[in-house]
Amino acid sequence: MPVASIACAGVVAADLVFAVPRLPDKPLKYRADASALVAGGCAVNAAAAVARLGGRAHLMGAVGDDAFGAMIRAEMAAEGVDCATLTVADAPTARSAVLSAADGERMLVNHRDPALFAATPVIPDPFPYDGALADTRWPTGAAALLTAARAAGRPGVLDAEAPTDVAAAALAAASHVAFSEQGLADFIGLDDARAGLTEAAARLGKWVCVTRGPAPVLVCDGGAVAEVAGFRVDAVDTLGAGDVWHGAFALFLAEGLDEARAVRRANAVAALKASAFGGRAALPDRARLERFMRERDAWT
Predict the structure, then answer these.
(1) Which structural domain, as residue segments, surrounds residue 39?
(2) Phi, psi angle pair for 133, to nearest 5°
(3) Tens of pLDDT, residues 15-26
(4) Is-cis flag, bond preceding 126, omega within 30?
(5) Residue 300: inside a domain, yes or no?
(6) pTM above 0.85?
(7) Are 49 and 247 in contact (CB under 8 A)?
(8) CA distance 237 to 106
C-alpha cells in the first residue's frame, strides 16, 4: 500500500496528566497514583497516530519559544512527525492540566494564548498532501487547510467541536465532518444525536458522523443514520482517544478505504490508545492494529 501523507492542523499543547482513583468532587488536596508530562492537543495526537500507523504526518500549529515548545518538537520528531510546518510564536506554549480517573473518565483545564492562532498556515501550492485534518479550535487554520485540500481533490476531515459557529468556512470546505456529541448539539441545537446528525447531513450536504466515546459511531451520508460499532476494552486513559480517532480516520480515507471501513479501523485505534496510561503509550502501530482486529474477528 502506498504511504499516505496527512497534514494535521490544530491545537498543540503540553499536557500534565495525573492518574487518580476517581475524579475529585470537593476542593481538597489529592494524591495521584501516577503522572506524565507529554505533548498533547488535537493536532499532536492525530499526527502521532498517523505516523505510528505508517503514514507521513505533517504538524501545523504553533508553540512558544519555551521549554514546553522544545519538548513538543522533540517528542514529535521522535514519533517521525514532520514539524517543518509548526510555527514558533511570540506567546507561551498552550498547556493543560488533566485528571485521568481509573474508570477512564477525565477532567481537563487548558490555557492557550490567542496569539498562538494569529497566523494562518502557509499551504504549499500545489497541495503536497494526500489528505488533511483540522479542528475547530483554530478556525482560520482549518479553513485554509481544508479549502486547499478540497481544491486539490483530497479528503479533508474536520474535527467539529463546540463552538462551531466560528468555523463556518471550515465546515463548508471539509469533505467529511466528524462531530463530537457536544459539537453536534452546538451546531444543530438538538440533544438527540440521530436527529441532529440527519439535520447536519442535510444542512451541510456531505458525509457526517458523531463520535460518542465507547458507543457506536453514528454516520450519515444523506440517507439513513447507520452505526459503526467500536471495540470494548478496559479503558485506562481516554485522553486524546478522539484525537487519534480523527488522525486514523483521515489516514485511512487517504489510503482509499470507504468511510465505513475507515471508521471501523479508527475505532480500533482509539480503543487501543485508551487501554494504557501515559499519553501515547498504547497508541498502536500498523502491525498491532492488524493483530488486534484479527483477534477480535473484526470486519477489516
Answers:
(1) 5-22+31-295
(2) -135, 135
(3) 999 999 999 999
(4) yes
(5) no
(6) yes
(7) yes
(8) 8
